[in-house]
Amino acid sequence: MHGRWNAALVPSAEQTVPTPTLSIWSETYMKRVLLHLVVFIALILSSWPALAHVGSADVYYEGDAGPYHLFVTVKLPQVIPGIAEMQVRSATPDVQRIQTVLLRLTGPGSNLPSAPDFAQRSKDDPQFFVSNLWFMEYGALQVRIEADGAKGKASLAVPIASFPRQSLPMSPWLRVLGIVILVGLTLSIVPIIGGVVREATVPPGELPQPSHRRRARSVMAFTLVATIGLLYANRTLWSAEAATYERSVELLKPRRVVTTIEDQNRLVLRLASPLMLPVAGRGKVTREIKMADVIPDHGHLMHLFLIGAPGMNRLWHLHPDRAGETFTQRLPAMPGGQYRVFAEIVDNNGFPWTLVGELALPQLTGGAPAGDDSQWEGAPLSSASPEASSATLPDGARLIWEKPSAPLKANVPTSFRFRVESKDGSPEPLEPYMGMAAHMVVMCSDLSVFAHLHPTGSVSMAAVDMAQAGLFAQAPAGAPPTSMGTMMHSQAKLPPTFSVPYGIPHPGQYRFVVQIKRSGQVQTAAFDTRVQ
User: Fold this and answer.
1) Between the CA of residue 133 and those of 86, 108, 305, 528, what are the distances in Å?
2) How would residue 248 be classed by pLDDT, with cut points 50, 70 and 90?
C-alpha cells in the first residue's frame, strides 16, 4: 500500500488553506474552559512565564479509511487546553466530505464519541481538508476520521499523545492592561455597593440620614476587605493551577534513564524517576507507570537506540528484555566511546514514552547483532556532509531516496519516498522488518530532534492497533473494511518502494537512517541533508 503515495498528497508551503471551523469536544469541557478564562482575566497578574521544549510532537500518519488512502497531519498545541490543526489529504479526488471527532484512546469515554465536526474543504484543492480540534486533557487520545465519497463511508482512527510542552509567557502590555482592569473593577464595586446601602431606602428629594451614611461606610469597608480576600483566594487557586500545569509539563518531558554496565557487556537501564502520567483531565491526579504496564510495539517491549556522540557516526538498534523495573541487554561488539541513549516504550493506555540518557563504553568484544537487532557505522555528520540520494547496501544493491528538487523546509508535511534497486538497476523486493516495510530514524545534528518513524508515520503501532480495534468493534454491519494498521508479518515479499510521512520540526543539519530487510538480513543506509 505504501507504493501508492504520490507527491500530490503533500500540501505545498504556498497552498492556500481556508479558515477552519472550531470543533468543540464536549459542552462540559467548554464550560471548564470558560471558567478558567474568567479566572485568567481576573488574575491576569498571577501568571509568570516558563518555557519548555519537546523535539518532535506533531503527528503524521498515512493509512487507509476503507477504499480511501489518507495522509493525516495533526499540529498539536503547545499548551493544554489548546487547539490543534488537523489536515487530511486524500490520494484520490473521490472523497467529498471528512468528519472528525476527538476522544480517549482507552478507558472511559473511548467508545462514546461526541458529535463530529465537519472538516473544511479547500476551494483550491478539493483533496485537502482542514479541521480544528480542542485538546482538553493529557494522555493517550485518538482522532476518528470518517471519509464520505463515491465509494461510500469509511473510517480511520489515528492515535495521538496529548501533552503540554510549555507555559506561554504574558506580554508586558497585557499585564499592564490586567492591572488597569483589576484596579478599576475593584475601585468601582466598592462605591457602587456603598451608594446602594446609603440611598436605597431614602425617599425621593431627601438626603440620606447620618445613620445611613455610617452604615454605608461600614459596608464599603467590608466590601473592600471581602474583595481583597476574594482576589487573594483566587490568586491562590490560580497559583495552584499553574503549579499543577508546570508539574505536568515536567512529568511529560522525555524522562531520564540511568545506564550501567554489569558483567562486562550487560547493559542495565533504570528510570531516574518514576513515570507519572497526569490523568483526570487537568493533571491534578497522576498514575505511576510501572514497567509491568509496558506493552509490545513491533513485537518488542523496548526499542533502544545507541547513537555515537558526537557526530552520530554509529547507531545500534537493540531490543532489551524486561527484568522487573529495569531493562537489560547483552551488548554486541562495540567501539568504546560516548553514546546517547534513546529508549522507546508504550504503556498499556497507548501512551508512548521516550527515555533519554548517556552511556560511556569501553571497547566491547562479542558477537554481531542478531534477530531484529542491527547496527550501522559511517562518517560523522557535519555541515559539510554531502547530500547523497543513493546509498550502497552490503550486497551491492542500492537504496535510493527520491529526493525532491526543492529544498526541504521545516514544518511542512512531506512524503519521503525510497526504492531499492539491485546491482543491475532492477527493482528489488523487500521483506517485513518487525512487521513494516522499513524503519527510519530522523536526527538533528545536535540531537534536539530524534524521531523513530515507519511507513505509517510517527505514531506507535501498538497505539494504532488499539485505536483501530476500538473503531472496528463499533463499525456497523456491512461497513467498508477499516485499515488495522500495516503490520506485515504474514507477507514474504513487499514492493521495492515505500514512503515515510513526516514533517521536520525545525531547520538544521539532519541525518536519516533507513533500515530495511532483504534475504533475511537487516540492512541500514544513511542520508544527510539540510533543512531550511
Assistant:
1) 7, 20, 33, 35
2) confident
How far, in whole angstroms, is CA 302 from its chain's centroid? 19
| DSSP labels, 98-157 | EEEEEEESSSTTTT-----EEPEEPSS-TTEEEEEEEE-S-EEEEEEEEEEETTEEEEEE
Half-sphere exposure of 471 (CA within 13 A, CB side): 30
Alpha carbons 412 and 39: distance in angstroms, whole number: 37
Residue-averaged pLDDT of the chain: 83
Instruction: Kindly state the average pLDDT of the residues 471-488.
Output: 53
State the helix-helix crossing angle for 172-199 and 210-251, rounded to 10 degrees: 150
Which band of pLDDT confidence, cut at 50, 70 and 90, is reported for residue 305? very high
Domains delineated in the chain: 172-251 (no CATH), 254-370 (2.60.40.1220)
Closest CA to 273 of 183, 156, 368, 355: 355
H or E, element range at 190: helix 172-199
Examine the pLDDT at 310 and tell me if it is beyond 50.
yes
Distances (CA, A) of 190 to 97, 222, 241, 380, 499: 55, 9, 28, 70, 67
Computed over its alpha carbons, how large is the radius of gyration of the chain?
A: 28
What's the rounded Cα separation, in Å, for the pair 443 and 148? 38
For 55-79, how does the pLDDT look when each residue is reduced to its tens digit (9 = 90+)?
788 999 999 999 999 999 999 998 8
Q: What is the pLDDT of residues 354-410, one digit of tens each?
A: 999 999 999 998 888 999 999 999 999 988 888 889 999 988 999 999 998 888 999
Backbone angles phi, psi at 359, to 5 degrees: -145, 125
In the chain the first and final C-alpha atoms are separated, in Å, by 30
φ/ψ (deg, to 5) at 33 = -65, -45
Nearest to 366 by CA among 260, 269, 266: 266
Instruction: Say how many C-beta atoms besides its own lie within 10 A of residue 234's C-beta.
Output: 15
Residue 92 has which C-alpha cell? 484520490
- The whole-angstrom distance between residue 152's C-alpha and the CA centroid of its chain comes to 31
Confidence of residue 36 (pLDDT cuts 50, 70, 90): very low
Q: So what's the pLDDT on residue 34? A: 39
Instruction: Please give the pLDDT value at position 132.
Output: 95
**Of 511, 505, 507, the residue nearest 54 (C-alpha):** 505
Q: What are 301-304's contacts with CB under 8 Å, separation 24+?
A: 301/327, 301/345, 302/269, 302/327, 302/343, 302/344, 302/345, 303/343, 303/344, 303/452, 304/269, 304/329, 304/341, 304/342, 304/343, 304/344
